[in-house]
Amino acid sequence: MTFPPPPADLSAWGAPLQPRGAALLTDPLLNKGTAFTERERDALGLRGLLPPRVFTLEEQMQRSLASVRRKPDALEKYIYLTNLQNRNEVLFYRLVVDHVEEMVPLIYTPTVGQACLEYGAIYRRPRGLFLTLRERGRIAEVLRLWPREGVRLIVVTDGERILGLGDLGALGMGIPVGKLSLYTACAGVHPSYTLPITLDVGTDNPDLLDGPVYIGLKQKRARGAVYDEFIEEFVTAVATVFPQALLQWEDFGNTNAFRLLNRYRSRLPSFNDDIQGTAAVALAGVIAALRLTGGSLREQRLLFLGAGEAGTGIADLYVAAARAEGLTEAEARQRCWFVDSKGLVVKSRGADLAHHKQPYAHDHPFIATLGEAVRTLRPTALIGVSGMPATFTPEIVGQMTALNPRPIIFALSNPTSKAECTAEQAYAWSDGRAIFASGSPFPAVDFKGRHHVPGQGNNIYIFPGVGLGALASESREVTDTMFLAAARTLAGLVEPADLAVGRVYPALTKIREVSLRIAAAVAAEAHATGLARVARPVDLVADIQARMFDPVYREFA
Fold first, then answer.
1. For the whole model, what pTM was predicted?
2. How confident is the model over 165-194, as pLDDT tens digits?
3. What is the predicted pLDDT for the residue at 10?
4. pLDDT given at position 557
5. 14 pLDDT exceeds 50?
6. What is the pLDDT of residue 556?
7. Under CATH, which architecture does the 292-456 domain have?
8. Beta partners for 450?
9. Cβ–Cβ < 8 Å for 548, 512
10. What would be the CATH architecture of the domain defined by 56-268?
11. Per residue, what are the HEC states of 519-551?
12. I want to staple 338 with a disulfide (CB 3.0 to 4.6 A). Which of 27, 129, 303, 307 is the partner?
């Protein structure tokens, strides 16, 4: 099997010899720190290298939790957790799994945005691989330098569009590292199977090029043939060195994201989380919201602020879902409208429109502003994927409320500073009637005697389960129908208690169960469509659950 259960011994990690003594304490996959038993300390040459008291994992976790909470701000907490991960991965993941609602915002959205901005200044220890233009012609050689064999999961970025922060070049490494941490914490993919990669092709950010602590190549971003040849060599090298790996494209610019996905998705199992993961989580939120608003998916009219990879990805998946409910493709596309930085996306704009926008360029008079588009088009759902903060104004939210008894308002831009509006604003400006979700977490809001819990429409609900299901089934490809299955599964896991407080996603505390159910749905799709390369097990859920890593210490032989 290409995705076995979590390794129980060092041979499954590809380690030829068991390290001893001080070397063992520097390996984060094996180090247990003060939890090494008396017997292990003698057998492994650790006597005297550790304080004498032996702690349990639970005791270590409580000490680490207290240390996190003592840190003065989110970035300092991120730095502490990164250092913990680099020292003792089992302890790190035990802490994250047991305190997921508190820890996920610190290791990923929204803190990871600030961490990427500061990545050069806070850089301590290498994690993952930096592949630069200097390695052209020998990328496979560099991949073979990775110390763990049997890589199954790679998250890669070129740093051009990090969250809503723009071109951060090599500082974008925080994204692959963070995403893979979520794969382990939320879906149980063993950390020994994961590899974060940053493709450093330069940056067009002048502040970085002139900055004293920038860790990447100080040159303009490569484009055209040089860029394409570099990506081609990279994909070929991955398929050669890690033939069992799934590749996740992350935070590529719009110019490259769509074409790279389309070029390589059938060459090796791969997907783009910004396009497909965002689409699935947003569609799931809309499906769940319909249990509060009534009506069918095919009857909705979606208005997007932002027409990049996230927005058009959501629209594409909505079209697939609406077609399954009986609409033609043309009818389904007619339910999706976009406002970009220049106004409403319409046919008359012609050559002004990028390729990915053209399917949603309708035959309609041009509209210059979002407010006018809301009044004219009368949407049932307003979805923000613009990276432009404070663009859902009181007037716009008020217009949505006048049009809909329960307006669906999703402010999905990340990090928090880029959100189109806050949860508190959405509820206040809609007189408590909005069904709100956001990309970053917002606290609960009490408004006019009612308790509202905003849902976090974050990709964390989708990509870990999709990746796990694709790996477990050894799928040759990750298809759009798998993401549609993931969206429907996620929506189905929203319980009446969630809807009662306005939340259209399950509680984050249930994320491992969510990921397991999505993985099973994705694997079932792979088996049903003939893409799976292994026989279908009798019980998909039980089979996948047996493969999930549980962060507990194992005794050394």
1. 0.94
2. 999 999 999 999 999 999 999 999 999 999
3. 44
4. 63
5. no
6. 84
7. 3-Layer(aba) Sandwich (3.40)
8. 447
9. yes
10. 3-Layer(aba) Sandwich (3.40)
11. HHHHHHHHHHCCCCCCCCCCCHHHHHHHHCCCC
12. 307
Q: Is 12 a residue whose pLDDT tops 60?
A: no
In the predicted model, is pLDDT for residue 16 greater than 50?
Answer: no
* Alpha carbons 24 and 134: distance in angstroms, whole number: 33
Domains in the chain: boundaries: 56-268, 292-456, 461-547
Distance between CA atoms of residues 10 and 19, nearest Å = 10
Token pair for 518:
């999505």
- DSSP letter string, 266-281: TTSSEEEIIIIIHHHH
Residue 377 has pLDDT above 70, yes or no: yes
Statement: residue 339 has pLDDT above 50: yes
CA distance linking residue 74 with residue 68, whole number of Å: 9
Instruction: Tell me which residue of 545, 551, 552, 550 sits closest to 472, measured CA to CA.
Output: 545
Would you say domain 461-547 falls under CATH 3.40.50.2000?
A: no
| Residues classed as catalytic | 108, 179
Angle (deg, nearest 10), helices 89-98 and 100-107: 120
Q: pLDDT tens-digit profile of 469-491?
A: 999 999 999 999 999 999 999 99
3-state secondary structure (DSSP) of residue 123: coil
> 37 to each of 58, 90, 474, 550, 552, how far by Cα in Å?
14, 16, 38, 20, 14
Taking a C-beta distance cutoff of 8 angstroms, is the pair 484, 280 a contact? yes
- What pLDDT was estimated at residue 350? 86
CA 429 to chain centre: 30
DSSP assignments along 12-69, one per residue: GGT-SS---HHHHHT-TTT--GGG--HHHHHHTT-TTTS-S----HHHHHHHHHHHHH
Strands 302-305 and 336-340: parallel
Inter-residue contact 476 to 261 (CB < 8 Å): no
Of the candidates 276, 85, 242, the one whose C-alpha atom is nearest the C-alpha of residue 153 is 242
Q: How far apart are CA 375 and CA 338, in angstroms?
A: 14
Q: What is the pLDDT, as a whole number, of residue 8?
A: 54
**pLDDT, tens digit, 9 for 90 and up, residues 68-103:** 999 999 999 999 999 999 999 999 999 999 999 999
Examine domains 56-268 and 292-456 and report if their fold is the same: yes
Per residue in 189-219, is it b (16+ CB within 10 Å) or e — as a string? bbbbbbbbbbbbbbbebeebbeeeebbbbee
Per DSSP, 351 falls in state: G
Cβ atoms < 10 Å from Cβ of 372: 14
DSSP H/E element including 394: helix 394-403
Secondary structure of residue 342 in the 3-state scheme? coil
pLDDT exceeding 90 applies to what percent of the chain?
92
Does residue 265 or residue 15 have the better pLDDT?
A: 265
Q: Euclidean distance between the first and final Cα of the chain, in Å?
A: 25
Q: What's the burial of 45, exposed, middle or buried (CB within 10 Å: 0-12/13-18/19+)?
A: middle
- pLDDT the model gives residue 2: 53
pLDDT on residue 535: 97
304: which strand partners? 338, 383
Q: Kindly report the CA angle at 354 between 407 and 200, in degrees rounded to 5? A: 100
